[in-house]
Amino acid sequence: MPPKARLTREQIAARAALELRDGHTVNLGWGIPNLVSAYVPAGVTVYFHSENGILGMGPRARAGEEDYDLVDAMKVPVTVIPGASYFDQSIAHLMTRGRHLDVSMLGGLQVAENGDFANWKVPGAKGSGGIGGAMDIASGARRLLVCMEHNAKDGAPKLLRRCTYPITALACVDRVFTDLAVVDVTPQGFELREIAPGWTPAEVQEQTEATLIVSGQVPHMAVRG
Amino acid sequence: MKQKLFDSPDAAVAGVPSGARIMFGGFGGAGFPNNLIQALDRGGARELTAITNNCGSGDGELGILFQHDRIRNVIASFPGPHAVHFQAAYAAGRIQLELVPQGILCERMRAAAAGLFGFYSAVGAGTEVAAGREERVFAGRRTVFYEPLAADFALIKAWKADALGNLVYRKTARNFNPLMAMAAKITIVEVDAIVPVGELDPEQIVTPFVFVHRIVQARGVHHAAKS
Q1: Number of structural domains, chain A?
Q2: A-contacting residues of B 163-182, CB under 8 Å?
Q3: B217 - beta bridge partners?
Q4: Sequence-distant (≥ 6) Cβ neighbours of residue B6 within 8 angstroms
Q5: Chain B nearest CA to A89, separation (Å)
Q6: Does a structural domain hold residue B81?
Q7: pLDDT for the residue numbered B225
Q8: CATH number of the domain that B82 lies in?
Q9: Residue B227: is its pLDDT beyond 50?
């Protein structure tokens, strides 16, 4: 039997984007969160925050219209929308660390059932590694949403009882969006909120190290494309 | 009035000695003092400590300083996978590296600038960053103590300066530059344009002149080559 279909990265991003409300201020991290801006629901205006000093970041600049003094955290030339502001890096992180943004979304390596989060360093990886803004953002997020694959490339589960990779921040994650499920971090542990179409809660549990709390009928994730 | 205007980047960085602690502005290719960095490289100072967000992009930005083995110690948030000369020097064991969370890097510089002796933050609690640091619990949260971070020099980039040294920046090229200007003993700025005193709107000035010591108009590299 062929393996069951999982959501694509774009589909994870599209599901996560349904959390955004009109007027929200939102920081998007590297990885799947970076795809979320393409799926903001119609009629919703979101003010994207960039750690290098933008509130109100717009789409990527069109070819020929790039301004290399206006880039996002990945060095890509971007634009701003009406109502945008520029500020220095300390104010940018005062916003992340000081709980001033409505939503922060980060890519993840591991999430533990107590909300501990690891996303900055793979043990044994080559090179110096780097923290960037991840610790400030995760530690101070008003609502931290993690977007990641449910399992690592080798199949290892990423929703764990305890993180084994170096920690980014303790007890900080509110909700996780994966290619198999939407899972909330609660005082009791992981609660399964939604599952990918075609999957059962028991099958998602098989892909998860930590126990998933299931109450009642678990709805399917809304999938686009 | 003290003369702050210099004719060339080389003149502006003259006297930066080997062993100096230097802050470098810039983020994501924007707001790097590329002309000052190249002049510093030509000046030949060695055993430098670099305080920076990232460590260059190929030969660009700080890359040339690592390529020529000018830097021994790095305090950075995200050295970067494209910082090939830094990564080679780091792999060869020639670099002492301290990784600092990005916002904490900012606040440590602000603390130094503001005459504060440090602060506690929940950022880094329970992580490798906390190793060797004092921890305290405030309002039920684990926090870590961070000491101030000062420097002998800041090499920064601004958009416009007046002859006094008041600075304005352009878009995301602002990033770390105003913070570093405040946290270093001697701030050296390269700008796109120098305007007469009185021309910059006082409401718009981001860095007041008290933080700026040497000014040079940049005529060379504005943006690093793509890596």
Answers
A1: 1
A2: 169-179
A3: B191
A4: B12, B214, B215, B216
A5: 5
A6: yes
A7: 41
A8: 3.40.1080.10
A9: no
β-bridge partners, B51: B23, B75
State which H helix or E strand residue B182 sits in: helix B177-183
Write the pLDDT tens digit of every residue in B33-46.
Answer: 999 999 999 999 99
- Catalytic annotation present for A51: yes
Q: What are the backbone dihedrals phi and psi of residue B106, each rounded to the nearest 5 degrees, phi first?
A: -60, -50
Nearest to A16, CA basis, from A8, B188, B150: A8
pLDDT in tens, B4-28: 999 999 999 999 999 999 999 999 8
Say how far apart CA B200 and CA A76 lie, in whole Å. Answer: 30
Structural domain contains residue A208: yes
Does B43 map to a domain?
yes
| C-alpha of B2 from chain center | 24
- Cβ within 8 Å of residue B95, ≥6 positions away: B66, B71, B72, B73, B74, B86, B89
* DSSP β-bridge partners for residue B215: B5, B189
The string of pLDDT tens digits covering residues A123-170 is: 999 999 999 999 999 999 999 999 999 999 999 999 999 999 999 999
pLDDT of residue B224: 46
Asked whether residue B126 is domain-assigned, the answer is: no
CB-based contact A12:A222 (threshold 8 Å): no
Mutate: best of A71, A76, A89, A164, partner B, most B CBs <10 A: A89
H helix or E strand, kind and range, residue A191: strand A189-195
Domain that holds residue A53: 9-213
> Which residues of chain A neighbour B78 with C-beta distances below 8 Å?
130-132
Q: Which of B77, B91, B172 sits opposite A70 (nearest CB)?
A: B172
A-contacting residues in B 10-49 (Cβ below 8 Å): 27-31
Looking at the structure of chain B, the number of domains it has is 1
How many angstroms separate the CA atoms of A44 and A55, rounded?
Answer: 16
The answer to whether residue A18 is domain-embedded is yes
Q: What is the mean pLDDT of residues B186-191?
A: 98
Write down the catalytic residue from A19, A51, A149, A194.
A51
Does some domain include residue B119?
no
- What CATH number corresponds to the domain at position A104? 3.40.1080.10
Tell me which residue range forms the domain holding B200: 5-101+151-217
pLDDT at B226: 41
Interchain pair B176, A88: CB under 8 A: yes
In a domain, A225, yes or no: no
